[in-house]
Amino acid sequence: MFLHNLKYEMKAGLRNRELVIWLILFPMFLGTVFKIAFGSIYEKVDSFSVIPCAVVEDGGEDAALRQVLDSVSEGEDALLKVQYVSAEEADDLLREGEVSGILTADGRLSLTVTEEGLAQTVLRSFAGQYNTNRSVITDSAAENPQAVQQVIESLRAELSPVKDVPLTKGNTDYMVQYFTNLLAMVAMYGSLTGLHITIQNQGNLSKLGARKCCSPTPKSVSICACLTGSAIMQTICMVISVSFLSFILKIRFGGNPALIYLTAILGGLLGVAFGFCIGSIGRFQTGTKTGICFGVSMFCCFCSGLMVGNMKSVVARYAPWFNRINPAALITDSLYYLNIDSDYQRYAVAVISMAVLSAVLILLGFILTRRKKYASL
Amino acid sequence: MGETVVKLENMVKRYGDLIALDHFSLEIQAGEIFGLLGPNGSGKTTTINCLLSLLSYDKGEIEIFGKKMSPTAYDIKQQIGIIMQEVAVFDELSVYENIDYFCGLYIHDKETRKQYVEDAIRFVGLEDFVKFRPKKLSGGLLRRLNIACGIAHKPKLIILDEPTVAVDPQSRNKILEGIAELNRNGATVIYTSHYMEEVEQLCTHIVIMDKGKKIAEGTKDELKRMIKNTETVTIEILELPEAVREEIGRLPHIYETEYKDDRFTVRCSGGKHNLIRILDVLKQNDLSFGRVYTELPTLNDVFLEITGKSLRDKED
Questions:
Q1: A97 in the same domain as A206
Q2: ipTM entry
Q3: pLDDT in tens, A204-245
Q4: What DSSP line would sit under A283-308, residue for residue?
Q5: Whether A317 and A269 share a structural domain
Q6: Are A377 and B104 within 8 A, CB to CB?
């Protein structure tokens, strides 16, 4: 009986065009829009950590300059990516956007750029610092290499305020939060499939529900099958969304990829449970319940920062308790902790909260729907 | 015959101040096609919903197959087939899948179910549409699918709640023939409608209800015998002087005359040769007339005489 219900629930669900549009295609579209909108900012910030530049030595090879440039181009915290080229080649590279600027060494170090930005600011600062300390470097290069090293260290220290200081191994890009919120939105759309369960099983919400209520199949079996079917479908949708964002749009959520999938799937289940519970409450008609479900889901997403980035901080300041019960906030928090934290303590708490909240919502939905006679149909 | 399949006793159902069922009782015997006739809003669907334990009610008792009906009376539900007024099927599933799904809620054995589903498809004549989705079906075919979903598990008691609303005449006849066949195959049928012709054609026992109350019960002949009208004569006539109309009204066995829109209607109560006597009067007064026809009383006349209003007044 359970498997029979599950089989047809899955068939009907997977053929439901609205479900495919809202749970698969729309998030893909929105993700692509986000990527286009934030992509250029993301790339600029990303490329800021290593700045490509061309170096032209008009006065012949400058050993002291090379020593400095080599030292700031090496290692994990490299500042520059240097190419020693002729003036013509440098112009070509700059024109084609291969480098952010041209450093020309002719006694002093001068900078040529075609646009202004953070990379250019760093290069300008580097050139200025080098020129200021040039005599120390030149004089000490042969006799006192230690003094040169001190100058280089001070040069690095000068430039570090405009360079990312990683506090975590995760992706600290501010824009990632929009994509985690997008995943939260897909999960919250699961509430519509959850609502669908109550509509299909309650005689006062649909004729299909009335017909099912007349059959000898216990409502608990039918609801369990529908919940399982919805959970499977929502899992498929979440996996597709995470895969699309990670592999097609190349969004780096940070953290263990398997745990990202797990979090997204659990978030989807929370969405289904949320919709199931909302659908079971009160005596509203189907249209009203759909409106409430959609509205509440969107409000939760809004509060977790889908539309306005710092909204979750605002909620945390004025109503911190709400972030602890807002399903969308729990989902984004889990993904955030997974990305940022080196241990899993906060992540585990958020994930357990999601699981507990899902269980409570499903239990509440069951209690409200089973063995029911209706006051009116 | 003789075994009571359904028993409703003293049912009361209120919606706020409105009394939908007012101490309503009925008994349905095995093998009957039981007609529940009444205008829209008379309480037919409420009765069915209470019967199926979908609706709560304020007072009364319901027994089906000798057992108390409740939402968890699965052994009773196993033997009931329900065909609702509105089509209740999955839009995403094909004709075959829909019937298989609903049949599967009652029949667990796959082989038996497959046979039952094929029987149901044949029964409603949807063999050529098994792979169609409901949206591709016409209104009539959709109704047939709705019926197939309700009867595929071969129930002993079939409840049809206005199954022919908004159905074309051809499909309507097919549905009515099908119901009669289901009854011949041994099912007890409860049929609700506000189409008196259907109830008259199909049902062996009829309850007429209005405002949640039973106002008459019996076979169609018994019901018609309850009223004084035995024959209605209608004559198309362009001009009818009042004096002639009064003369006809004084003839024996004639209790009511009406002249409206060039139609002269005469209602008779018993007696023979009423038509000949009416026509004789018209001829004696040199009045020419057109079409003449007589009608035997209908269930509408029964309803009209008991309630003072027509069954058709509130039709869709």
A1: no
A2: 0.83
A3: 888 999 999 999 999 999 999 999 999 999 999 999 999 999
A4: S--HHHHHHHHHHHHHHHHHHTTSSS
A5: yes
A6: no
- CB–CB contacts below 8 A, A to B: 84
pTM: 0.74
| pLDDT tens digits, one per residue of B86-109 | 899 999 999 999 999 999 999 999
User: What is the pLDDT at residue A167?
Assistant: 47
B60-76 mean pLDDT: 95
Q: What percentage of chain B exceeds 70 in pLDDT?
A: 97
Closest by Cα among B217, B151, B161 to B186: B151
Helix (H) or strand (E) holding B180: helix B169-184
**Is residue A4 less than 8 Å (CB to CB) from chain B?**
yes
Q: Which residues contact A345 (CB under 8 A, 6 or more apart)?
A: none
| A341 domain residue, yes or no | yes
Cβ contact B88–A207 (<8 Å): yes
pLDDT of B171-194, one tens digit each? Answer: 888 889 989 999 999 999 999 988
Average pLDDT of the residues in B259-288: 90
Co-location of A256 and A362 in the same domain:
yes
Judge if A196 and A343 occupy the same domain.
yes
Go through the domains of chain B in sequence order and give each one's CATH number.
4-219 (3.40.50.300), 231-296 (3.30.70.100)
Q: Which of A162, A189, A220 is the last residue of a domain?
A: A162
Cα dihedral value B20, B155, B166, B203, nearest 10: -70
**Cα separation, B220 vs B151, whole angstroms:** 26
pLDDT tens figures, A127-142: 887 887 777 677 666 6
Does the beta-carbon distance from B101 to A4 stay under 8 Å?
Answer: yes
How far is residue A316's CA from residue A334's CA, in Å, rounded to a whole number? 16
Is the CB of A206 less than 8 angstroms away from the CB of B88?
yes
Pairing of strands B263-268, B254-260: antiparallel
Minimal C-alpha gap between B132 and chain A (Å): 14
Whether A336 and A266 share a structural domain: yes
Residues A222 and A364 both lie in one domain: yes
Give the total number of structural domains in chain A.
2
Domain that holds residue A345: 2-42+170-369
Residues A190, A114 share a domain: no
Amino acid at residue number B175? I
User: Do the domain assignments include residue A129?
Assistant: yes
Give B-chain residues touching A197 at CB under 8 angstroms: none
B92 to chain A, any CB pair closer than 8 A? The answer is yes
Kindly calculate the radius of gyration of chain A based on its CA atoms and give it in whole angstroms. 29
Measured between CB atoms, does A203 come within 8 Å of chain B? yes
Does residue A338 sit within a domain?
yes
